[in-house]
Amino acid sequence: MNKILKKDAGKFCERLFAFRGFEKTELSIEPEALSVGHVASISTVQARGNSSTDTRRFSLVAANGFPLYEIIMSSNTNVDFWRRYVFSAILEFTLFGGRYATFDGVYLPAARTGLVLAHRALTTRGASGLLPQENTPKLSRPLASFVENFARSYSGQDQHNIADWVQDQIFEGEVVANPVTAELHYKANNGEVVPLHATSSMITELAPFIMMLKADRLFDRLVFEEPEAHLHLSAQRTMARAVARLVNSGVQVTVTTHSDTFLQQLNNLIQMHNHPNKENMMQENGYSPEDLINPEFAKAYEFTSSNHETLVASAPLTTNGFAVATLNDVLIDLSSETLRLQD
């Protein structure tokens, strides 16, 4: 994997960020998460009735001989598409291992409000760069994928029974889609309907999350940036519980956060999972078993800036949850300042 990254790191980043400026970029995964025995691309002829088809098979096999992945395409498939598909397959196996490609993965970016409100114009004008248009804004590949996926049908069922719960807890209403135009609206419990662009930032921020849960496609991986954005502290706590419920329904969830409240709520759910008085604690605080997080299934990483570099380190898991110094130190400093002012 690192050989591929070393050779094509610049091109990979250019496609990912829609920006030329990665000529001297170096990428590597350390330690390598996947030991690959061999990658094979073989041309074969398969008989189908009286006709035959020239095909190309790609297989990914672990060093121990275990078959990981295989796909067969027509030899007429665009070579560039073939290379990108193979690269993506190897990269996803490296990052996600055996969880790769069971269902779809979903990405909810921090910039989701603006993208949601403008998604129809962006998809029409080709913001991903696949349809060059004059004066069309360019988006990074993840943001472009979000816009494209958000434009899909919203006619499915709430596969995890979480959307209604979040709306009941936070919205006092629901986000609905026009079945003809796919325009989103907020429908209050009193029956009043308001277009999404006229609602509060809280609703527009959570609308993609709600519609993702209602979408007609299954997913088992979610990357959710800043789920606490534009939410009151009590709503942030509710979102932490929603994340826990997704995890307990089988979804691999990755979140980024700058909120000490959101993190502390996750820590409380982790701590309560093994609490000796768990049943009473759950009843007192109004929690259900699906709200709790098994610490064995949780990991946290802290990003710190040092010497013009960003360092990523695993946050230690204590009996009280994850200890994140970059948040805790600020809270301690703020509390000390407040106490000094009150003296």
From TrEMBL:
Domain of life: Bacteria
Pfam families recorded: AAA_15
Domain Endonuclease GajA/Old nuclease/RecF-like AAA: 157-262
InterPro entries cross-referenced by the UniProt entry: AAA_GajA/Old/RecF-like, P-loop_NTPase
Protein name: AAA family ATPase
Organism: Devosia sediminis
